[in-house]
Specification:
Rossmann fold, 32% helix, globular, 13 helices, binds adenosine-5'-diphosphate, binds magnesium ion, alpha/beta, 8-stranded mixed beta sheet, 4-stranded antiparallel beta sheet
């Protein structure tokens, strides 16, 4: 468990409402990623896990990063935390966490920034919760690392957090060990641990993937509720578009290490502009029920060592014959505002994406 002396976050008094951030701060950019490239050496060549990725995460908003397994979602978020071994990672671009640069920062500064401002929830609670310590003690110690309070006050704070994340009998359950909790309860406890220091940024990487569908929905509801209460910026990483539909404000779709589409969740889900996003939306049960045939994105993701030329998606794209010339195979499209909507970005050569994608849906 981390031990950090300085209380970089204003101390919360027990009993004080948890929503301590000014309403006016809503929308402030906490995390600003620009032109991030991350690659790793391998025997086959360089693995280009993330290429030219840019996005902002804002207080009070949830940004979902969506894409198939291996598209670079986790690598991009681990980079935000500075968790890659610098000797075996090539990294360029900029990651500003409240104005402080992460790329190239020395380890001590990274550790300080991380512990003061960012919390992470993973698919596997085992990675955050220590098996040999009582859950309440783990949360209390994390709190004491940042707040000069007595053990008993910190213990009370832990119980309060367990209560907040919906653990029944929190006073008693605080004395349990992780193995005594069900999967869903462990996930709740990990969220309590992540939020106890009121982080500005919460990164949740596939937080519900290991859970059954009913528990998934409960955890997502909880995340949404807590986000309202804490006002943090949330980056939610998932391969499951159904998950993001529930809880996100904004969506960034990644394919083969690149952002291919960005926009508000409502717009992207209702009106996808990139053929890959369109394929993902079509594979959602509610959308496909209205179609005669269930569609999924055919084919498999490309190797990140030998990326296709031009648009990385072109080998799987059903629309490239609608692009004049051979541009999809020869030229990488830029991520640009879509025709008629500056708030929507798409990386595609199609001159009229709406016309092309809707035409296909009617076939
Ligand atoms: N430390 C590493 N060394 C080499 N390759 C890595 C490393 N971490 C991730 N990768 C590769 O980077 C790619 C993207 O991985 P990841 O971000 O974990 O995907 P996902 O979108 O499923 O979260 C994968 O091909 C993975 O094998
Ligand atoms: Mg991942």
């Amino acid at each position: 468990m981390s031990t950090f002396g300085a209380a970089a976050i204003p101390a919360l008094e027990l009993g004080e409402p948890l929503a301590t951030r000014e309403a006016t701060a809503e929308g402030d950019v906490v995390l600003s990623v620009r032109d991030l490239c991350v690659s790793f050496p391998s025997d086959e060549g360089r693995v280009r896990a993330v290429s030219n990725l840019s996005y902002d995460a804002r207080l009070g908003r949830t940004l979902a990063i969506v894409g198939e397994s291996g598209s670079g979602k986790s690598v991009s978020s681990m980079s935000v935390l500075g968790l890659h071994n610098p000797d075996r990672t090539f990294m360029s671009g900029s990651i500003l966490l409240e104005g402080e640069e992460i790329v190239g920062a020395p380890q001590e500064r990274l550790q300080r920034l991380r512990s003061a401002k960012v919390a992470m929830v993973f698919q596997d609670p085992q990675s955050s919760l220590h098996p040999f310590y009582r859950i309440g003690n783990q949360i209390a110690e994390a709190y004491r690392a940042h707040h000069p309070v007595s053990r008993s006050l910190a213990a009370a704070r832990a119980v309060e957090m367990l209560d907040l994340v919906g653990i029944p009998n929190p006073q008693r359950r605080a004395r349990s060990y992780p193995h005594e909790f069900s999967g869903g309860m462990r996930q709740r406890a990990m969220i309590a641990l992540a939020l106890v220091n009121n982080p500005k940024l919460l990164i949740a990487d596939e937080p519900t993937t290991a859970l059954d569908v009913t528990v998934q929905a409960q955890i997502l509801d909880l995340l949404k509720e807590l986000q309202r209460e804490f006002g943090s910026a949330v980056v939610l990483i998932t391969h499951d578009l159904a998950v993001v539909a529930e809880v996100s404000d904004d969506i960034l779709v990644m394919y083969a290490g690149r952002a291919v589409e960005r926009g508000s969740a409502r717009d992207v889900l209702a009106d996808p502009l990139h053929p890959y996003t369109w394929g993902l939306v079509q594979s959602l049960p509610s959308a496909s029920e209205q179609l005669e045939h269930l569609r999924a994105v055919r084919g498999v993701p490309p190797s990140l060592v030998h990326l296709p030329t031009g648009c990385s998606f072109h080998p799987r794209c059903d629309f490239r014959d609608q692009v004049p010339g051979n541009a999809c195979v020869t030229d990488l499209p830029e991520l640009l505002p879509a025709p008629g909507s500056v708030a929507r970005l798409t990386r595609c050569h199609l001159p009229d994406p709406r016309g092309s994608l809707r035409g296909q849906a009617l076939r």
